[in-house]
Predict the structure.
Amino acid sequence: LSFGDYVSESLNTSYRYFVEVPPGLPRLAIEIFDADIGLGGATEDTAGRDRDRGGYDTSVNYALFDPNGLARPTQFTSGNASLPVGSDNAWLAFVDTTGESASDNFTVAAYNNNTGILSWSSNWIETNDDGNAGTGEILITGGRLRIEDDGGTASTIERQVNLSGYTSATFTFAFETENVEAGDQMRVEVSNNGGGSWTTLETFTGPFAASSRSYNITGSIASNTRVRFTEITGYTGTDRFFVDNLAITGGPITPGHWEVRIDMSSAATAGDDINAFGLRAHDGTAGAGGTELKTYVDSINGLGSNPPASGTTSRSYTLYPYVTSGCICAKNDFDFDSNSGNVGSMSFTSRTGTFTQNFASAALSADNVWSRGNIAGWTTDKIGDGYGIWQAAVTVNSYLVGGTPNGNYANFYVSNFQAAANPPTANPTTNAFRVYLPTDGGGAPTKLYLKQLAVHVFGPNPSAVGQPSVIDVIVTVTNPTPNGITFNASNLVTANVPGLGVVYAGNATVTQGSVLTQPAVGSTGNITWNPGVLAAGNAATLSYRVTVTPTSAGQRLPITGLPATGNGTRAQYIDETGNTTQARARYTFGPLCELAVTAGIPTAAPATISGVITGNNGLPLSGVSVSLSGDMTDRTITNANGAYRFDNVGTDGFYSVTPSRANFSFTPAQRSFSLNGNHTNAVFTGQAGNDTANPLDEDGFFVRQHYLDFLGREPE
């Protein structure tokens, strides 16, 4: 515990990181930086990597688990002062695969190699040779499998894999020959019964330059599928058939959350050295031009700063907590040693950038104890717009003990409003938020977010005792990720009318999907909304009305459900990995902090607009003139032609426009909504017009889900 590693020492368990793999990923590459512990020698600690405590004698175990929780083979499984080879101060492939494959790149002279993520059921099996991967007529040499024959009984080598559950399978390898005569023959075969019988895939006759082969072996899928190379004739003396990069692929890479488990508990080591490492995941191209895969820690992460030769030093981390529920959250840290001076700081900034909370050194944990600091204030009674990916800037300072430099190491996680008191009893920790690692560019990853706001429609404002006021509640779900996110009949957006002076007033409308359930007007209960598939880069909105009637002066009436009751506004969905069976991929965002109306305090009031709506020819449409003015944080704009709702000031403004009894009409065509005043260049473009499935009447038209660039400026 004096070394600040609560996970390894107190919990005696592993650190857990998760890689989000989207559907259709052509290649999965997960790499670990500096996977050794001390391979670089005495300079590692001064370089800010591994730290020696009395001689490098510590090991770490690395493991990979697929979205079904099954352990998968990796290219190395441990790190210490000598392994993995080539890992010091370098990125090393932990997994690199183009599918669910059992593969062998023959990099080591051993018959149990596995460089894929599907396990072989057996080692390579020789017949009519010595059974040794390093000697004999059949062996592994120079990073390839070499097959010869001694001129006697034909030699073979075969290996088995379990393909149960797969609907297709492919067998691939690279090959070439050396010193082979025209009549020499080598045969490649497949078996679907463990070698009881064989099907010839191809017979190679004579010499071949470097080439490759791919065979569809779907018809041989079995629990004991085998492949075999058989020398038919020739291949004596120095006649050779070389094989490399062999793989049996049973299907595409399974989408979902893949776990990288890093274990330095007593099961892995008795040592106490520091293991500094990095983690990244991508589609085989690291950095520019590649596809990054979002990676997060659940839940506790290790941070630290090695001691310098003299004085003190610091190390800064930028991490991204995914804050998705409640009115408060909390930072949790262990063993920051704040009783030893200025040992660092933490700063948390909301997704919108409008809220920041700082924790100075004195607010961090002392030696060998946990500290919790609540974070609150990013929501208000009229708008909850701060949820989603936050930024956490964490600095760890080393310090002096009697003038001697001392390193400083800590554990850290972010919890939601339901978290139990520290110390945590497990990792992952119940009711902790996921904390994402930075992108290649050091920025925030993209994740879905949910928000809600309240806008006064009519009736007294401020609300008055005994007098009803009608409020619009607007719930928006936004998908900034590059993949679609799925809602369905069992994965819905749910809002709640809580009662106690607040009842449903109807008028539920959505920009996509459908409202499945809603209370009767004048009653309470849930509104459920199925948006369907929310496409990449899109947002969708639910709007409904409530009637609020205070019974006493100053009374605060929640108009949406409270988080503590479980009825707060929330969205359950299948995330961008598209995995419908993995619990981690079925995420619940929320419950959000409640919106509320307080008697005597104004609720957001409508702003006014003026200006023009233009047609395809750029000329104003008859009878319509609108402009933008007033406090746009009010989020609603009205004029004689109807109500223009506005949501989310800033660069991604969202409009839904509902004129009523307008004295003009639209045909199905592209239209532009141009705003004057402070936003001359802001143009709103979208589809509007008659819908044969929903004919227009005197209520006018509806423009669905469009975006407006406000040039980063909030309207005056």
